[in-house]
Amino acid sequence: MSTESIRDLNDAHIINTYGPRKLALTRGEGAVLWDADGREYLDFFAGIAVCNLGHAHPGVTTAIQEQAGKLLHCSNLYYIEPQTKLAELLCAVSFADKWFFCNSGAEANEAAIKLARRFWSQQGTPKPEIITAEQSFHGRTMATVTATGQPKYHEGFEAMLPGFHYVPYNNVAALEAAITPQVGAILLEPIQGEGGVRVPDVDYLKQVRAVCDKHDILLILDEVQTGLGRTGTLFAHTQSGITPDIMTLAKGLANGVPMGAMGCTERAATGFSVGSHASTFGGNPLSSAAALATLNALLAPGFQDATNEISEYLFEKLNTFAGDCASVVEVRGKGLMIGIEFKETVGPLVGALQESGVICGPAGPNVLRFLPPLIITTEQVDKVMSILTTCVGALKW
Question: Which domain holds residue 183?
Fold first, then answer.
């Protein structure tokens, strides 16, 4: 099918919640994508930080094929071998003692919110309120969109759920001032993604952890976008030398197969009991097999080192570009989660890059966001930087 025919079918039968789109992507390999008309693109968005290993990764593809030939799905009313192996590995490489599996980041954060509330109820001291940050993003369910500290995502869905309070990000004093006896958890992103790739001060998370310990509050870290090697380590919070009580993952967990997860300490896990939470598809055999293969690839010796080397190379190129472009306000981020803030609205630049064969996206009105697969090469970086320079010049920025 051509792009035009796919577009016509889409417009006729699918609710338009994504706005106008020009591409119909049909094939990928590594960091390269092709559309329905055979045109090639360099992928610097990875499906919004999902395809960390790139497209058609052989290890993940083989795992999916083998599992599909054995058992696609069975209910969580039964033991699932790939799920138990995945949980064992996640426990081995993280602070978490227990895991719950679901299908997305929103569901993982929903589970974390429910766990935090039920934990304190089970303790006999209900503390149902949760503090989140302004400019945060935690998902599109009613609870997670309420937790999201951006009014534009609330519009038309009022009233929001009760019990959520927003404070400025990277401001520990404001956070502690918002604590009341009803607050049972603080939910934060180690780096804000949709809010503009905003990196907090080095000691911010450490100070938040201290506040939580002082007031006996659960710390929930949303690592849906920052986790799984994206920001220079397997999980971003380890760079701050702290551990949360609850952590959420999704996006890159199964390299494109829908998969979310919530990990927590043994203490926090007591908030759930039989029947208190569930997911029909969460952690089914197929998604668990894909996630296990993905995680093993991310943990392979030298993989993170190579990712960090290419990150350093890309940042060097971007900083040089920024020094030559008066329109750039700042280049920020960690690992391969990068935001370039411009004085202008970046929508036209995203479009120009796409027309020139580079796929990326915005993070708010003025921030261009790069989230490439973690396996990009120096040659691909050079090509993208050349195209970026040309596009910015054409826009006369």
Answer: 59-298
